[in-house]
Write a structure and sequence with these properties.
Layout: H1 2-8, E1 10-13, H2 21-36, E2 40-43, H3 50-58, E3 61-64, E4 73-77, H4 84-92, E5 95-99, H5 103-117, E6 121-125, H6 131-137, E7 145-147, H7 155-158, E8 163-168, H8 174-187, E9 190-193, H9 199-208, H10 211-214, E10 217-221, H11 227-239, E11 243-246, E12 262-267, H12 273-289
Parallel strand pairs: 1-12, 2-3, 2-4, 4-5, 6-7, 6-8, 8-9, 10-11, 10-12
Length: 290
């Protein structure tokens, strides 16, 4: 009977699961920097995952709240980027800057700067408190309009904007931003739209629209602070109610998988492979125990 259960039981891991290019690049830069320097600091977290943050800490990289002038130090800019003021302040205080900002985020910042100089008002579709959005805002001189929810779009708030450029936080939901832009077009006469959702996010969302349909249960892996993981969970949950969001094997519950023969797994862009493997193995143990 146990043999039959094992034969019918399958775990499918999404091809796009785990680290994206930008996160891999940031972590590799941190490793390389840790091998060459001693006094290394970071404002905030390199990515939104506590296990990865702990790994970075073990390399000897210290997380700080503010920059201080005290000898030669190295400052790593996290993958989500930072306001321009951080770079200026770091240079004034003699920090050597290692910029681990994701290239896609850099491109979003560049678009905002370029069109601001041409006289366009900048509109950002994204989570107002997210590090990436704060970084984009801090790279232009005028105050951008941030659209975090549908209710943020009001005629009063957008009155007086004759022309605007819209950029998008790189991990937003594709369908959501399309709906938002259509509403903005009805209010602003001249508007340009740059769909700056990154390729890894597009791939992850493409898979998560299919996997919940063909699996009995879905496990989405990532920290609660991870914006892209949140999107994956929301999309999957809307398709398959048996969708569960965890960041470690300890958060898994055996009862989730009772009578479930096909289980799908996906993971946010800041989730390392070793966490995905741990969770896969724990689910196997649950099923083997019956």
């Amino acid at each position: 009977m146990l043999w039959k259960l094992k034969a019918m039981f399958k775990i499918k891991i999404a091809k796009s699961s785990g680290f994206c290019f930008g996160v891999k690049r940031a972590i590799q830069l941190a490793r390389d920097t840790a091998q060459r320097h001693k006094k290394i600091f970071m404002l905030g977290d390199i990515v939104h995952n506590p296990r990865v943050v702990n790994d970075i800490k073990k390399m000897g990289i210290r997380k700080i709240r503010r920059l201080v002038k005290n000898g030669k130090r190295v400052l790593i800019i996290p993958a989500h980027g930072a306001p321009e003021s951080v770079y200026h302040q770091a240079r004034r205080k003699n920090y050597r800057i290692i910029d681990a900002t994701c290239p896609m985020v850099k491109e979003i910042q560049a678009i905002a700067k370029r069109y601001e100089k041409r006289g366009y008002r900048i509109i950002i579709i994204g989570d107002a408190t997210h590090d990436e959005v704060i970084g984009i805002k801090g790279n232009v001189r005028t105050t951008p309009v941030v659209i975090s929810e549908k209710k943020d779009i009001t005629v009063n708030r957008l009155r007086g904007i004759d022309r605007a450029v819209v950029v998008v936080q790189s991990t937003q939901n594709l369908e959501y931003i399309d709906h938002i832009f259509k509403k903005l077009k009805k209010i602003i006469r001249k508007i340009k739209f740059f769909n700056t959702i990154c390729y890894p996010t597009r791939q992850k969302q493409k898979e998560i629209k299919l996997m919940p349909k063909i699996n009995d249960a879905m496990v989405v892996i990532g920290a609660k602070s991870s914006a892209n993981t949140k999107r994956l969970f929301e999309i999957s949950k809307s398709i398959n109610p048996n969708t569960f969001w965890v960041n470690s094997r300890n958060q898994l519950k055996k009862e989730w998988f009772i009578d479930k023969r096909r289980i799908g797994i996906t993971a946010g862009a800041s989730t390392p492979d070793y966490i995905i493997k741990e969770i896969k193995n724990q689910i196997k143990k649950f099923k083997a125990a019956g």
